[in-house]
Please model this.
Amino acid sequence: MIEKIAFNILAFAIFIITFGRFIKKNDTSYVYVLGIEFLGIAINFIELLASIHLNLFFRIIMYMLSIIIPVIIFLIEYKAKITFPEMLNITLAKIALHSGNTEQAKEYLFKLINKYPERYMGHKTLAEVYEKEEKYSVAVDEYIRATEINNKDIKINYNIARLLNKDERADEAITFLQDILKTKPEYYDATNLLGEILYTQERYKEAINVYMNALRYNPGNYDLYYNLGMVYTMVNDFQRAKEFYQKAAEINSLLYNAKLSLGQIALIAGDLDEAEKYFKESMKGEDVEGGSYYYLAQIAILKGDKEKAINYMNIAVELDPNIYNKVQKEDVFIPIRKEIKKPQKLENEQKRRTKLSLKERKALSHLSKTCSLINSMNNEDLTTFKNVKEKEKIEQEKQREN
Model:
C-alpha cells in the first residue's frame, strides 16, 4: 500500500511538472511526454480499479512510463542545457538525415529554429544537413551562427575551416585554423588541414613551421614526419627530406611511400646502392605499386645488368600499365624497350586504384622529375657521383674520429 501511495504522489508530481513546462514554454512537443506519463498512470489506475496485482513486467513498464523516462528527460535537459523540443526535433532530423531524406530533416530543424532561434544545436545540426547536400557556403553560415551562440565548441571552428577550404575560400580557412591552433596548439586535425592547405598553395616554409610545431605534441606521429619529408622535397632540401622520411619509415615500416621516396632521394644523390636498398625494402610494404620496380629497372640498366632490368620493368608494367608509355619516352630505357611486354589496351585493363593523396602524388612526381636527370647520365657521370660520395664518406669518418 505504501508503495502505491508513493508511486501515485511521485507520478502525479512529475505529471504536474511536465504540464507546467508545457504551459510555460508553450510548446506542444511536451504533449508526447505527457502522453507517456499518462499511459503509466493509466496502467496503475486499471490495477486499482480492477483490484488486480500486476506481474513484474507490467510494473516495470508502469514505472518506466510514469517516472523513469520523464526523470531521464528532465536530467538531460538540466545537464546538457537542452530542452525536450530540441531533443525531439534534432533526433527526428538526424533519423531523416540518416535515411537520406534531407528535406524532411530540414523541416524539423526549421521548426525548431523558428521556435528557438538562439539554440545552438538547431543551427549546428542544420549546418550538418547543408554540408551533406554540399551547400558549403550556407553550411558555413549556420556553423557561424552556432559559434555566436556557443564559442566553446572548437570542433565547430574546425568544421568552418574545412568547409571554407572545400568552398575554395582557402585564405579564410587558414585564418580560422591559425586561430584554433593559438588556442589549442595540440589539435591535430587543425594542424593537418592547415599544413595541407599551405602545401597546396606552395607556401612550403609556412607548412614546415606548422608541422614542426605539431611534433611537440605528437612526437611519434608517422604522418607528421612523412608530411615534413614531402614539404622538404618540394623545396629541394633532399637531405632534410631524407631525415624525415627515414623517421616515418622507422615509425611504420609497412607503409610503401616513405621508402619509395627515400629510394628516389638516394637516386638523385647518385647513390645507386642505397637507392636499390630502399626500393627493395619498399616492395615489402603494403599497397606496393609499380614505382619501385620501375626504379630498380633503371638502376639495373645503369649498373649494366640488362636481364635484371627487363624482369623488373615487366613487373612494373604489369602493376601499372601506364609505365609502359613512360618507358618509351625515356632514353635510359632504350636498351630494353623491345623486351618490355606491351600491356593490353588500358580500357581493357582493370584500372589501377591508388590511395595516394594529392600532396603525396605531387611530392612523388617532383622526386620523379628530379630523378629523370639520372636518365641522361653516362658512365663518366656515374663515376663522378661515386667519387663525390666516397669523398663525403671519408670526410664523415674523419669527423667522427676527431
Notes: The first helix runs from residue 2 to 25.
